[in-house]
Amino acid sequence: MGIKYFNGNWHVYTKYEVILLSQSNPENYSDVAIDLWIGNDSGGYRIEFDPTYGAYLGVQFAGDTQYVKVRDLFIAGSEKYLGRLKFRVYHDDDGQATRTITIWSGSTSGITYDGWYVGDLYTSFTETFEKIPRMSTIASVEGKRALGEELTINIERKVENFTHQVWYKVWGSEWIDLGKNIGTSVKFTPSPENARLNVNVVSSTFDICVRTFDGESQIGRDEYSNGWYIGLPSGTQPKLKSVELVDKAKATKDIVGKNTFVQTFSEMVCQFQGMEGTYGSTIKNFYAEVVDQKMSITSNGATFQFFKNYGDFQVQAYVIDSRGLKSNVVTVPIKVLQYFAPMLTFEAVRGGGDQQTIVVRRTAKIAPLIIDGVQKNPMRLKFKVRPAYDGYFTENAGGGIDSRVINSVTNSNADLFGTFSADKAWIVEGTISDAYASFTFTAPIVGPEELVQCRTPKGTGFGKVWERGTIDAKGDIYSHNELVQVGRLTQINGKSIKMTGSANNLMKTGMFYSHGMSDLPSNLTGSQLYGYIQVNTHPTDENYVMQTYTPYDANVIYMRRKTPITGWQPWVIFTPSGSVSEWKTATLQRGWKPYQGERNVQYTKQVDGTVLIRGSCQGGDGSAGTLFYLPDGYKPSMTVYFVGIAGSGTPFYGGINTHGTVYTSQNVRNNWLCLDGISFKID
User: Fold this and answer.
1) 3-class DSSP assignment, residue 454
2) Closest CA to 211 of 153, 262, 254, 256
3) Which of 47, 59, 564, 576 is 20 to 30 A off residue 41, Cα-Cα?
4) C-beta separation of 209 from 167 below 8 A
5) Same domain, 248 and 327
6) What is the pLDDT of residue 342?
């Protein structure tokens, strides 16, 4: 109940009372009445009006406006009941209702008498009504959040006799009805088959809808709770049954056994078998590796690279499905047999009483490749013989081996079949092979028996049977009591000996030509790796060596020495005085032109890095500024300042900055500038 006074001087007021008549839970509204009175204070002046000329009170409430008339008015310290107005107030969704009520007067300002007047009235206030119990809400979800696991939905209800109907949808399914007449909780188990609805994720969500009933009437709206996490059922990883490892290399696949391979030759192929996804997932990725060998493949049926090592290893493999889940790991033990190329060293010498037999002393070895106690790799050794300087090789069965039992012999002697004339030299070739490779080696020539002199129509042999050339000598040659030098310093025609490889290996006196050799001076360009090397050695100690090197296209000499203590020392450069590269003409700026009758402005660089500038110019901008630019390779590391000649012999000043800009700064004359004698060295 409240009172509000009019703004006149007659002390008139309105009294009002808000009364809750009833409430509807299903419809969420309250019926409300407002009773109204008009009166004046006790002891106040009497008010008598009949009629009041249309005076009224208006009430605005809950979106509705109603009026009550004052009619005749006889009050003196008393009140008159004006009547009751009824309104329907619809509550908010949560059952709350706080509303504004506005009361005002109309035509009351005309009620006046002898200086007294009622005046007008306006008031506004809020009224909060009793909350109407509304729909229930979802309090919590209990249980393991995974498909196939039981979950409990707990409901917070507002009225004890309310019941509920509950739905859920999971992993993108349609809504699934859990039934009606549910109290404060309901249990359910989402089927693991729902995982088939999206085979590309490892987790998803489920949504819940609760509808509240009071008897058969729905209370409020449906209540939703969305985005609850839920994972995959247990055991949803893809499965891999096995992998099959086979050797596709033609040289080895028919020799080795199951899961046995050969170092260097085998090409192991991995076939994944019995792999499958779960709940509709598909296999997307494959992976297998030889553990600790840095060998892996990522596709079904792929081939591993050749085995670099040998021994017992493990292959581990797994697959990954469309959800990104990794399967169980399958482990397969394998054996890699050691393989090395067939090895053979042998010498051939004369034997027998008449020295017409050739004896071969053999040391040979192959990789045995033993599987289940059986050697799978055969050892084959054959020899061929021919005269040293004519004729053809013929196979010789002597000294040969063909065995699946033997895999090595050491210093084993065998006679070649046949006789070999003592006055000829012979060449013996030995070929060793196994199941994968074959190599041929040649022994030093088996010479003829020693003779003092042997004359033939083609030439004479000294100390041996003649075989080639006009003179074929075995032993030292003397002339004028001096030993004739037989070591070659050059080619037979006197030209340098062409060399490749490392210059560090040139340890013999001679004249050589570098054909792109390494270990030359480090500052050489590509073309400068071709040039002339001279080597000088100590007369008694081969550990003391001196080398000089000159590129074929540069006027410079490099030198270095080697000693037993220091090894090869760094190369040292020697530059001939006055050695410069080609002079280049500068591109003048700001109107400067070459001075007629004198050298153009030019620049060059010596082999030691000194940049030289020369020449004269005229007719340009006489103020300080750029003359020309030096290109890369000619720019100083810090600004260089210089003095030139300008005009009638007066000096001018300039500089060269690190960007290569050659500029003037003071005393410039545009009739003549001379830049002769400017130089600086590039660090």
Assistant:
1) strand
2) 153
3) 59
4) yes
5) yes
6) 93
Determine, yes or no, domain membership for 489: no
Residue 536 and residue 414: Cα distance in Å, rounded? 46
Q: Are residues 350 and 329 in the same domain?
A: no
Instruction: Supply the pLDDT for residue 667.
Output: 84
**326 exposed, middle or buried (CB, 10 Å; 0-12, 13-18, 19+)?**
middle
B/e letters for 477-515, b = 16+ CB within 10 Å, e = fewer, are eeeeeeeeeeeeeeeeeeebeebeeebeebeebbbbbbe
CA–CA distances in Å: residue 41 to residues 52, 78, 124, 374, 455: 19, 7, 22, 131, 169
pTM: 0.51
Residue 376 one-letter amino acid = K
The parent domain of residue 190 ranges over 137-231
- Give the count of domains, the chain: 7
Structure tokens of 645? 């000649």
User: Nearest 5°: CA angle at 503, between 502 and 504?
Assistant: 85
Q: Which of 380, 431, 378 is nearest to 405 (CA)?
A: 378
Identity at 673, one-letter amino acid code = L
Q: Which alpha helices (H) appear in 533-635, and where do they start and end?
A: none
Tokens 């409300």 locate to 32
Chain mean position to CA 340: 37
Q: Which residues of the chain have pLDDT under 70?
A: 449-457, 463-467, 487, 575-581
CB–CB of 209/188 below 8 Å?
Answer: no
Phi/psi region, residue 568 (left: phi>0; alpha: psi -120 to 50; beta: rest), is: beta
- What type of residue sits at position 8? G
Query: For the chain, how big is the Rg over CA atoms in Å?
Result: 57
- The CATH code of the domain that includes 70 is 2.60.40.10
